[in-house]
Amino acid sequence: MDTKVAIIKEDNINYEAINEAAKVIKKGGLVAFPTETVYGLGANALDEVSVKKIFEAKGRPQDNPLIIHVADKDINKYAKEVPDIAKRLIDEFWPGPLTVILKKSDIVPSVTSAGLDTIGIRMPYTKIALELIKASGVPIAAPSANISGRPSPTDVQRCIEDLNGRVDYILGGEESRVGLESTIVDCSVNPPCILRPGAITLEMLRSINDSIYIDAAIMNKPKEDLKPKAPGMKYRHYAPKAKLKIIQGDFQKTIEKINEMVLNYIDENLKVGIMATDESLPYYKVGEVISLGSRANLQEIAKNLFETLRTFDDKNVDIILSESFIREGLGIAIMNRLTKAAGFDIIKID
Ligand code: AMP
Ligand code: MG
């Protein structure tokens, strides 16, 4: 399949490209596009045949439902009911990186929700995404625009790498500002439950309703009796090709441990990447070292996480050693993605 690529500017939108991409959606094709979380791979959410193409292009398991992207807050057509708490979350956090799960109405085909009687729905704030949805005239079902299992793309080059030849159109814009997928809150249950942590943090959600809690299964290795409630959270995910290990503990001891491990791996002729921070960068003298940003700026760490994992893949390292982050605020989402990418391989030091 020929893939058309158009790169446009968020602050000076080329509507010719938007309209061309919208035409592809209307005709049942696939369009990758930028959002503030990560790039999405979109199709008409209300058309079964179009939605099936998303699963094929990504190699996505059929039981992993898609999030529907809308351009305004009027979602009554897609949800059977919108409880008060969902209305308040939408009022406060839309447009933005928050997905709410609601009881599905009949106009949304069951392939979109992977057979569930609920749907995930979100209004992104990236203008290119909003304009594309508006011009398409339909809600757009869009998972992350990567091949399933790989780290999600936060810029257009990564979309092209994964999807060129597999989709009809790639609409490029700026890098994703958040860099992690949306927070998912299940509002079809009471009290609402966070199924996936993201940039809308637990504290932010609790400022609206203090009974909201996090699904206990998502921060730990999935077990038989503790399975994540969001189908997608059970898969190995966000994973680079290299083996990723997280070193967790006191800052100085972490640096010492990483330096010791690097030397051992180099002895074994392995190529090692170190996922460092601005604060630790000067202490690593060997290996491929990349800083995720400053520990004082978790937004920066989140934004750079997936891109850094992909850069290590480009460098063909065998092992990546990562520092660990505080499990508070945005740090909960960062550690959720990092531990999943590492297959929960965490080395704890005292
Ligand atoms: P992605 O779009 O690739 O970020 O993946 C979407 C995520 O949303 C996956 O983890 C899905 O399991 C989750 N999701 C979407 N719809 C639902 C739903 N109705 N109930 C629970 N989780 C959902
Ligand atoms: Mg994804």
UniProtKB/TrEMBL annotation:
One annotated GO molecular function: tRNA binding
Subcellular location: Cytoplasm
Annotated EC: 2.7.7.87
Record-linked Pfam families: Sua5_C, Sua5_yciO_yrdC
Keyword set, alphabetical order: ATP-binding, Cytoplasm, Nucleotide-binding, Nucleotidyltransferase, Transferase, tRNA processing
Record domain YrdC-like: where: 15-200
Gene Ontology terms describing biological process: regulation of translational fidelity; tRNA processing
A single cellular component GO annotation: cytoplasm
InterPro entries, alphabetized: DHBP_synth_RibB-like_a/b_dom, Sua5-like_dom, Sua5/YwlC_C, Sua5_C, T(6)A37_SUA5, TC-AMP_synthase_SUA5
Residues given in the record as ATP binding sites: 60, 64, 118, 144, 152, 196, 238
Top-level EC class: transferase
Binding site for L-threonine: 37, 69, 122, 142, 182
Transmembrane annotation, as ranges: none
Domain of life: Bacteria
PROSITE patterns in the cross-refs: YRDC
Reaction(s) this enzyme catalyzes, per UniProt: L-threonine + hydrogencarbonate + ATP = L-threonylcarbamoyladenylate + diphosphate + H2O
Functional description taken from the UniProt entry: Required for the formation of a threonylcarbamoyl group on adenosine at position 37 (t(6)A37) in tRNAs that read codons beginning with adenine.
Annotated PANTHER family: SUA5, THREONYLCARBAMOYL-AMP SYNTHASE
Family that this chain belongs to: Belongs to the SUA5 family.
Protein name per UniProt: Threonylcarbamoyl-AMP synthase
Organism from which the protein derives: Clostridium amylolyticum
